[in-house]
Structures are given as structure tokens and as C-alpha cells.
Amino acid sequence: MEAIDMEAVELNSQLLEVAYRIREMREISGFTREEMAKKTDVTVAEYAAYETGRSDFPFTFIHKCALAFGIGITDLLEGDSARLSSYTVTRKGQGQPAAKEEGIEINSLAPMFRNKIAEPYWVRYDYSETQQNRPIHLTTHNGQEFDLVLSGSLKVQIGEHIEVLNEGDSIYYNSATPHGMLAVGGKECLFVAVVLPGEGAENTAELHASIVEARKAEDFVANRFIDAREDAQGQLSGVSFPNADQFNFAFDIVDAIAKKSPDKLAMLHVDYNGAERRFSFEDMMKSSNRCANYFLSLGIQKGDKVMLVLKRHYQFWFAMLALHKIGAVAIPATYQLVAHDFSYRYQAADVSAIVCTADGDVAAQAELGEEGCTPLKARVLVGGSREGWHSFDEEYARFSSRFERPEDAIQGDDTMLMFFTSGTTGYPKIASHSCKYALGHFVTAKYWHCVHSDGLHLTVSDTGWGKALWGKFYGQWLCEGAVATFEFERFDAKYLLPLLGKHQVTTLCAPPTIYRMMIKEDLTQYDFSTIVHATTAGEALNPEVFYQFEQATGLRIMEGFGQTETTLLIACLAGMTPKPGSMGKPVPTYDIDLLTPEGKRAELGEPGEIVIRLDNGNPCGLYQGYYRDEEQTNESCADGVYHTGDLAWRDEDGYFWYVGRKDDVIKSSGYRIGPFEIENVIMELPYVLECGVSGAPDEIRGQVIKASIVLTKGTEPTDALKTEIQEYVKTHTAPYKYPRIVVFREELPKTISGKIMRRLL
């Protein structure tokens, strides 16, 4: 006679009891099985199997049931709420199961104690070889946490910091900081976790869920396209992009997230009047589908070039995704263009249609630019109406929110995006990017911006510039994080600073100019408590700005470098110690080197041009070439490398230090002088707001150094001050580098992307 497994009988009995309580609570709450299936993210058939006890249910199912009923997990598991108020003892192995999923076991150690101010747990985390070199999933919850390792080893990430804990080691941290952990060392890790929920904390069910999430491997929809590898310190050691040839950002990321987590926040938008709009990933999917159907009705087809001049309007995101879905090529452009700029762009890029802001006279300039050009298929206006233009806001909402992926949808190496690479003068080049470009920005967001899935990232950029797609679109959504967009006409630190705390921005990226404006304000009056990471790009960061911002906020600004033709090339990534003034180190996406004018590898300390070696083909993120300009494309990719045109030198630790553009180097009395070094010294002076250094012709020396300076408000521009500046530079750098010419200006000439135009100084 076969023996009866009494333990199995007991477990099955417990399962049936919990299932009965779930059914009873559903009936009391008045929910149908269909409604509960939706609330618990399972099929109706799966829900029925769980509720009847035919299938064992995972912790996440119980958690979602508890949330739906508005009760604690204890009520569902035990049928009884906590009742002890004096003390409670939990013997070894007798904690109440709070979670049990693949590789994870969590037991509450005081399940029946009433009015707890802390939640103690016994936790087992299995060792997983496949997770060892992958990013740790980060999560947040209110309160604080204490973890004590009982056996094994635990790799813990708190923000950008990595710690490995062994038996007897402990860690205490603010659990509102993005955190996560995994077992290392080849065996399971057992530890005690004590969670202090804090004010406004989640209920017990939510708290259990957050602990589980903190101990899970990342399960992003992007995982099938990205293989990121980390070293023992959590620093990125390598990255590859499997299945990139089948990749389309709109379908494979945004729509996939919408189906997985429809209510997850994708973007917070604040308009000029302070009105707030929150868009979920489902909103983005449905709105972009409507937009795609709308564009098709206007005759916009696959391969058409469409200009988007939309400032920071939320419709930009709808339009970008829609164009990716129908296979048209998006061309973001700044609203500062005038008629001749539009005319050149229409012709140079074979523009078929334009989607334009109604603000100011932008649409009028776009119309004037059409004179003498091939007529556009469609003109679409956002935020207003104008004769001869379609009204986006009135028309697009009439269309279906369903849009199936076409069989011939663009993907992989198909062209997705074009950027004009310079300002509004001259003849800008057109950098063409494939669908793979979006994948290249995973490193930008994950390891430089340090975006996490529960966070809110702000990049201060207008959508007319490539930087917006660095920080407001591709990479952030690859990480399933949310982006913040605040509309404004002209940057004012007093406008932006209060918004950081009000909306609980977690990660921030802004150009050095913005940080310079910030530090001129009293930063102690603003809330930076939710921000865990700050970055900058667009131009080199002056060390003085770094130090002042750190002193005021406690945040170290992590620098990054790239171009319109690339994604992030060099940066101070997560886990690195920044060297103020340094660009950081090359990112693993690219094979980067420094070459002398003779084509040799630059020695340590020797300036050389930053290049990307192309021995193994074009990496994800590098442009396809300049549209209809084979000569310039070949010139930029000569000798098997991509030439950035930017100079830097490398120190003994592998950090790169920016020198300047090849064209900006000053040649004086036989010396080659990079302007940035001198600008850094001048920026140390408290009365200097901005500074640009350039070369001025000189009969004897060839060139002499000229410093063009904007003083802080209230500082008088005197000859004595000029002398003081010159003497300061002489004593803080090599004497031959001092500026023989010092001029004071109200403002410095800049490109419409905000970079100082040294050739006009």
C-alpha cells in the first residue's frame, strides 16, 4: 500500500483554505472572476484554477488579491489579523511565508504582532549564475532597511554604489534610494531584513512586494535585445545587442511595456501654465497608434521625411512613435529656425511633411521657407489653428487607437531618424540613424543617467536637439523609467528648481550652462532630496561648477561626451569616481582611441583626436552616414575609424580630459593650447558667470589668447579687473597661457543648442 504524504496533504489543505478566503472576499467585494483576473494580471482560466485550489498560486497573485480587497496578506494567508501586542517568539523555520517565488523565499518573523513599527524578515536568495554579470534590478519603498547576512554573500546596490556583504556583515540604508541585491559567491545567501516603513508607508502587502522586487533580476522587455555585463563592482564591462536586426523601438519597447504594465508612468508633462499631464505607457501606445493612422490619412508613408518642430509639447512623443510605426523618417528641428533655414532643410533632406508648433511665428517662417521648394504633402499644426494647416489636436483623436505592426515595418538597419548637425548658419550636415540607434542609448540611460524603473528622469533639452533623444525618450524607456518634461520659453533657474522637489525628480541631466545658472542661486532654499544622480553633457564642465554644486546639494555631476552622430562615447559611468574636469572613460559600446595627427596612438598625457575604430563594423548608436553626402561621410570615416574632430588626452588611470575641437586649438609662439583649460581657471573667480577663450591674430606670436567674459550681476568691468584676471591665470597655470586680451561682454555668442561659438568671440 502506497504511503500517504501527510506533509503534502497538509499543504494542500492550507492551499484550499487560502483559495476559499480569496473566493469569499471576491464575493463580498462584488467582483466577478473576470474582474479579478484583470486586477491580478492573469487569465480568467488561471484565476479560476487559483480560486478553486487546483493550482498553487505565486506570491504576486496573493499580493494583488490583497490589494484588490483592501486587506493585508496576513488576512488571506492565516484568516486572522495580527493580535499580539506584548511580545512574540518565532522559532527557527516557523516564520510565516510572505513570498516564495523562483529563487526567493521570504518569511515574516513577527506576523501576528500588532502595531509593528518595523517588519522583520528571514530571507533566502538563491545563487543564479546567469544573473552574475547582469544589472541588478533597483526598486524603492518608503522608510529604511537593515540587512544582516547570516550565511553566504550578498551583493547590494544602493543608488550607484555597490557593496558585497559576507557572513556577519550588515548594511543600513534609506530604502527610498533605488536599491537591489543578489546572491554571489556561488551559493545561496541567507539574511535577516528589518524594514522600517516610515511615514506614509505602503501596506504590508505592498511592502512584501517591494522586498521581492528588490531581490529579483531585471525583467525588462528590452532584455531580448540587450545583453549588459557587469564586473564584481557593478560597473559596466561589456554590452551587446542580440536581435538588433529585428528591433523597432515603438513596437518592441513602448507597446510591449504598455501590454505588460499598462498603467506604468511614461511621462509627466507640465505646460507653460503649470497644468500637469501624466501619460502611461498605454496612453503612449494608443495615442501614437491614433497618430500613425492620422498621418497615413494625410498621405505620409513609409520612407517619407517628416520634420518635427514641437519644442517641449507632449505631442512630440506621439508623433515620434507614430513615425517609427509607419516607417517614416523623423527629423527633429529647433523652433528657432527662420525661413532660409527651413528652405535649406526642406531641400537638403527631401522633407515631405512638417508637424509644427503654433507658438510664435514658427509656422509662418516654415511657410515662407517652402517658397521655391517642392510643395509639402502635409502641414500639421499643434496647439492652434492656421489657414492651410491641419489641426493636430482637433483631428488626430478621431482615429483608431489600434495599429497593427506592418509586415514591412522598419527595423534594424532601416533609417529611422535624421539630425541636422549644426546651428542656423552655413550648411548643416544631416546625420542619418538606423533603428539600432535607440538601442545604443541603453548605456546612456542605465549606466550614465542611472535611470531606474520607478524613477522620474529630467533632461533639460528642447526636442529640436539630439540631446532630447538622449534623455527624454529612447534610453529612459528602455529602462522602463518615466521622463519629466517642463515647458518654458527661456531658461530660468528660479522656474526649474522648485519643480525638482515638487515632482520628486530622481535623476537629472543638464548642460554645464544650466548648472552654472543654478549655482548662482541659493540652492539651500530648494529640495534636492529625491535626486540621487546628476549628469551633464553638451560641452565640457568646469571643475569649479562641479565643486560648488556638490557643496550645495551633495550631488557629484557625472560628465558625459558624445555627438549628434553617436550615442554616449565617453563618460563617468555608475560606480566610477569622478575626476572634476574629466570626461570619464570610454564606454564599452564603442572601441575608442586617441590618435595623433600622424595617425599614431597618443601617449599618456599627449593630446590626440578621439576616434572610434570600425574594425568590427558600425556599433549600435553610430550614424549611418551623412545623407546625400558621400564625400563628407568618407572623410569622417577615413582610415577605418570614425573621426570625432574633438581632442583629448588620457591620464594614467584611463580617464580622458577634453582639450577642444581641432579647429579651436590655439597656436601661440609654438605652443598648442586648448581653450578649455584656461576657461576652467577663469571660472574659479567668483565674479565670472561665463567665459569663452579663443585665439586672436598676432603678427609676432601667430595667435594670442583672448578671454571673453560675462560678469555676474553687479560686478563692474574695469581695467583693474582685467589685470586681476590676467594675474590670476598666470599664477594658476603656465604663464604662456594667460590671456593677453580680456574683453567683457553682456553675453557670449552661442549656437541655438547653447554651445559657445568660439570662432565668433
Walkthrough of the structure:
The protein has 761 residues and is an alpha/beta fold. Among the domains are: 1-83, Orthogonal Bundle (434 Repressor (Amino-terminal Domain)); 248-435, ANL, N-terminal domain (Rossmann fold), CATH 3.40.50.12780; 665-760, 2-Layer Sandwich (GMP Synthetase, Chain A, domain 3), CATH 3.30.300.30. Helix content is 28%, strand content 26%. The protein has 21 helices and 37 strands. The strands form eight sheets. The chain has a 13-stranded mixed β-sheet with strand order 13-12-22-21-23-24-25-26-27-32-31-29-28. Helix 4 (59-69) runs antiparallel to helix 6 (204-214). The N and C termini lie far apart (97 Å). Residues 1-9 have low confidence and may be disordered.
Question: Quick summary of this structure?
Answer:
Helix content is 28%, strand content 26%. By secondary structure, it is of the alpha/beta class.
Could you give the topology of this structure?
Elements: H1 6-29, H2 33-39, H3 44-51, H4 59-69, H5 73-78, E1 96-101, E2 104-108, E3 119-125, E4 144-151, E5 153-158, E6 161-165, E7 170-174, E8 179-184, E9 189-196, H6 204-214, E10 227-230, E11 236-240, H7 249-260, E12 265-270, E13 276-280, H8 281-297, E14 305-309, H9 315-326, E15 329-332, H10 339-349, E16 351-357, H11 362-369, E17 378-382, E18 390-391, H12 392-395, E19 415-420, E20 430-434, H13 437-448, E21 456-459, H14 466-471, H15 474-478, E22 482-486, H16 493-502, E23 507-509, H17 512-519, E24 533-536, H18 543-553, E25 557-562, E26 568-571, E27 582-586, E28 592-595, E29 608-613, E30 625-626, H19 630-636, E31 641-650, E32 656-661, E33 666-668, E34 671-673, H20 675-683, E35 688-698, E36 702-711, H21 719-732, E37 741-744
Parallel strand pairs: 12-22, 14-15, 14-16, 16-17, 17-18, 21-22, 21-23, 23-24, 24-25, 36-37
Antiparallel strand pairs: 1-2, 2-3, 3-9, 4-7, 4-9, 5-6, 5-8, 10-11, 12-13, 19-20, 20-30, 25-26, 26-27, 27-32, 28-29, 29-31, 31-32, 33-34, 35-36
